[in-house]
Automatic annotation (TrEMBL):
Primary localization: membrane
This protein's record includes keyword Transmembrane: yes
Species this protein is from: Elysia crispata
Gene3D superfamilies reported for this sequence: Rhodopsin 7-helix transmembrane proteins
PROSITE patterns to which the protein is assigned, alphabetical: G_PROTEIN_RECEP_F1_2
Pfam family, one: 7tm_1
Molecular function GO labels: G protein-coupled receptor activity
One GO term describing the cellular component: membrane
Location(s) in or outside the cell: Membrane
Membrane-spanning intervals of the chain: 37-64, 76-100, 120-145, 157-174, 207-232, 262-286, 306-327
Domain G-protein coupled receptors family 1 profile, first and last residues per copy: 55-326
The protein's name: G-protein coupled receptors family 1 profile domain-containing protein
Domain of life per record: Eukaryota
Length: 348
């Protein structure tokens, strides 16, 4: 396959001259098939994003009402803000990738216009991964150093970590904007010139994407998995030890039930993050080992586009369902939630 997207045929009966005859490459996933898949995926993704934006706004209000004196509350409060940014970028990208807009006879490419805010999406996703990893590490330290964790994770320490994360993401993601520009390109669908998104410095864009999203997301993904496995094993050991040291069966059962709830909540929270981040992590690994899997490849370009949209939708689901965990597992959150919304509804 050459750079123009054609495959050369060896010399034979079909070749009447000494030159190779180029044949167009048939894509693995045709344009019609990709449009059909995108129509279903984006139709589901848009209402999920709308729900997630409102649910995370509720999370922000409740955590603010609970107070930001606890390092965990600060992290969860900022996590909700990062999820709102992620979902806002996702819903804009979803509208831009709708087949109806892509096929429209416009003077600009809707899909390319929405790619301008890609660094905001990837940065907010990475910040969400950072925060999830910080919360996971904090809970691990609560098990290992229960008396020292409050001195390690203070309000000042947590706030400093979050500020450092934001500065790092802005500094590492901003160079991506200097490697792209808008130019007039002739559309293959409408045969008209329109403004499109052009990468003129792919090395800078790739490096910025790698440093700002892929590597942090991969590192946080591994930390959350290892931390969750560690916590589950420690909670099981603690439950067995408390059962042996307990004087009565009733007290033993009570402590055991409490530990089981803690284990289940941790498994549930971690599963949501892992399921949401796994498609992006796997896509990065596959793309690194198989470089032909990219948007501009004539054979795998449509497939790669569909995989990206599905991964973004899964990430949107992960960002939207945290409120169910908080309401189900957190008694303080549930109390403040009822205080804010139930009282207002009764008053109205």
């Amino acid at each position: 396959m050459n750079s123009s997207g054609f495959v050369k045929v060896a010399n034979g009966a079909m070749n009447t001259s000494n030159e190779d005859m180029p044949l167009p490459v048939q894509p693995y996933l045709t344009y019609t098939q990709s449009v059909l898949i995108l129509s279903y995926v984006l139709t589901i993704s848009i209402p999920i994003c709308i729900f997630g934006i409102f649910s995370n706004i509720v999370n922000i209000l409740v955590f603010y009402k609970m107070g930001l004196s606890s390092p965990t509350n600060i992290s969860l409060f900022c996590l909700a803000i990062a999820d709102v940014l992620t979902l806002c970028c996702t819903i804009i990208s979803s509208f831009g990738n709708l087949p109806a807009f892509q096929d429209a006879d416009l003077s600009f490419s809707m899909r390319d216009i929405t790619r301008v805010g890609a660094h905001v999406y990837y940065s907010s996703c990475a910040i969400g991964s950072w925060l999830t990893a910080v919360i996971n590490v904090e809970r691990c330290l609560c098990v290992v150093f229960p008396m020292k964790v409050k001195r390690i994770f203070t309000r000042k320490t947590t706030a400093s970590l979050i500020i450092a994360m934001v500065i790092y993401q802005i500094a590492s993601g901003l160079p991506r904007s200097f490697g792209v520009r808008f130019s007039w390109i002739t559309s293959a669908l409408t045969n008209r010139s329109r403004i499109s998104y052009v990468i003129f410095n792919p090395r800078l864009v790739t490096l910025s994407f790698l440093v700002s999203f892929s590597l942090p997301n991969m590192a946080c993904f591994i930390v959350v998995i290892l931390g969750t496995v560690f916590l589950i094993s420690k909670f099981k050991q603690s439950r067995q030890l408390r059962s042996k040291m307990s004087g009565t069966e009733e007290k033993s059962n009570k402590l055991s039930d409490k530990d089981v709830r803690l284990v289940r909540s941790m498994i549930f929270i971690s599963t949501i993050y892992i399921c949401g981040a796994a498609p992006n992590v796997l896509l990065y690994i596959i793309s690194s080992t198989y470089p032909s899997l990219h948007l501009d490849d004539p054979y795998l370009g449509n497939l790669h586009h569909v995989i990206i949209i599905i991964a973004v939708m899964v990430q949107a689901v992960s960002c939207s369902v945290n409120i169910f965990v908080y309401v189900r597992m957190g008694s303080n959150f549930k109390g403040k939630f009822r205080e804010i919304f139930c009282c207002r509804s009764e008053a109205s």
